[in-house]
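Narrative summary of target 7.
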Amino acid sequence: MPATSTLDLDAIYRSESRRVFATLVRLLGDFDLAEEALHEAFASAVEKWPRDGVPENPRAWLVSAGRFKAIDVLRRRAKFAASLSVIAPQIQELESPTHDVEDDRLRLIFTCCHPSLAPATQIALTLREVCELATDDIASAFLTAPTTIAQRIVRGKAKIRDAKIPYEVPTLDDLPDRLDSVLAVIYLVFKEGYSASSGASLTRADLTAEAIRLGRLLVELLPDSEAIGLLALMLLHESRRGARSSATGDIILLEEQDRSRWNREQMAEGQALVARAVAAPTYGAYAIQSAIAAVHAAAATAAETDWQCIVAWYDLLLRADPSPVVELNRAVAVAMHDGPASGLALVDAILARGELADYHLAHAARADLCRRLGRIDEARS
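Modeled conformation, tokenized:
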């Protein structure tokens, strides 16, 4: 076995710790015990690996070490617990040598995003347990008190334990609904980073990076067309980060952005993922939204944007995920293709139904179309 160094251990921790943690959660059925066992396993590695060398399979070694550390903890608990009859079988099960070392991160994602948990709890748990963000960092990102985030995490873990939520990937019959929940959580994290709901900064790169990291992980473990589409959508949006705001922090609209500042590497990766997503036999709203973003990415200038293609994609999106907001976005695309008068008629029809009366972007869209038509007083009002 090769010798090891602090640098090796740091690299192994970064690459393997969440994998080890996810497997320990599956084996132990307890987030806190798994976290304790994980750190005990790495403490043991710090002691033994410099002397004995790095094992051939570091993750298997760490899972095994963590499992036996947990057994020791449970034995100590059993000495003082009235529930020895409950703990003893758990110890016996953990002592069984039949446990496989799997990549359990997908199980962990689905557990943290279980629909019985509140969305805010799903986000906090996912960022803490899957991404290993510190509670203070999550709180800072969402401008929430650390105690509030900590309470959400504690309540989430208790709910998982008390409701006996299984650590498993849903069955094929349950997968579509459960996957929707996971994708929604990842996209919520991304949107909060991409267009912050509050705070001094327009964007928060740490959150968009974590969302993209989660998206990559999900595609790696479950290459569903919608997961691929969401990752593509996030990458294409993120590729424009450098051009989205001015030096003073003001937002720069898409048609006015300096496209030389777009991240071409992220853009190319996103476009390749779009091609994969829409090549699937069936695909949904995330794949379609990513296709729309890819059309924008393909245009060298705003004037070269293929608005007819974008309108066609919005027609598909309206069938896949009908909503007044999608209608509004389609109306803007129609305005860019057929002229502002055509788009304004559609926006007025939407507002007349009252569904977006309190949605500021609907009024902003109408103002812009009035401006383009020279109806300046209406635009101002």
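The radius of gyration is 25 Å.
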